[in-house]
Amino acid sequence: MRKVTYGAACSLDGFIAGPNHEVDWLHMSKDAHAIMLDYWGRIDTLLMGRKTWEVAQAMAGGASGGDSSMMAGIDSYVFSRTLGALPPGQGHLVKENAGDFVRDLKGRPGKEICVFGGGELARSLFEAGVIDEVGLNVHPVLLGAGIPFFRDAGRIKLKLSECRQIAGGCVYMMYRVLRPRHRNLDLGHALNAAVG
């Protein structure tokens, strides 16, 4: 089963960009670059929602790949019910249920899968139980407002698998998503304990 990771750089107060998609507060360093190069070498699939795709297109000026060395061999999927089509070479448009699509994608051969961008797509994938890891590069800045890393994801238990300080006062963290093995059995034990 392929691993799905949701990750991004974020402010200490949990925003991945300012209110107008500003990212001028990001601290790029050799540490962060090394983490990104390692991660991009392990994935072959990028998932994003319509809003993230539109922002990426605007930032790239509509160019089809940004850093071509990083994007080589990466399949992109854009989830949207409102887009009619994507320009040629800009990825695959997905209009079906995101959770079902990603669950099927995880069962196909391939490398790891990255959920890229804002929290709306991630929320639906958390609800579907298909995200395996959460990665953060927390920056020492409070933005006060902006695009949140998490959007009403509900209660999700995580286990810390890596944590270290990197350049610029940033903290890199990786968490594994914990899923109850027997949710119905656990509920049954809780009910028995409550009435017994």
Report on this model:
There is one protein chain. The strands form two sheets. The protein has an eight-stranded mixed β-sheet, with helices on both faces. It has one domain (about 5-195): Dihydrofolate Reductase, subunit A (3-Layer(aba) Sandwich), CATH 3.40.430.10. It is globular and about 40 Å long. The chain is built from six helices and ten strands. About 30% of the residues lie in helices and about 30% in strands. About 25% of the residues are buried. With about 200 residues, the protein is α/β, with parallel strands linked by helices.
Chain-wise SSE layout:
Blueprint: E1 4-11, E2 15-17, H1 30-42, E3 43-49, H2 50-59, H3 68-71, E4 75-79, E5 92-94, H4 98-106, E6 112-115, H5 119-128, E7 133-139, E8 147-148, E9 158-166, E10 170-177, H6 183-195
Parallel strand pairs: 1-6, 1-7, 3-4, 3-6, 4-5
Antiparallel strand pairs: 2-8, 7-10, 9-10
Helix pairs in contact: 4-5
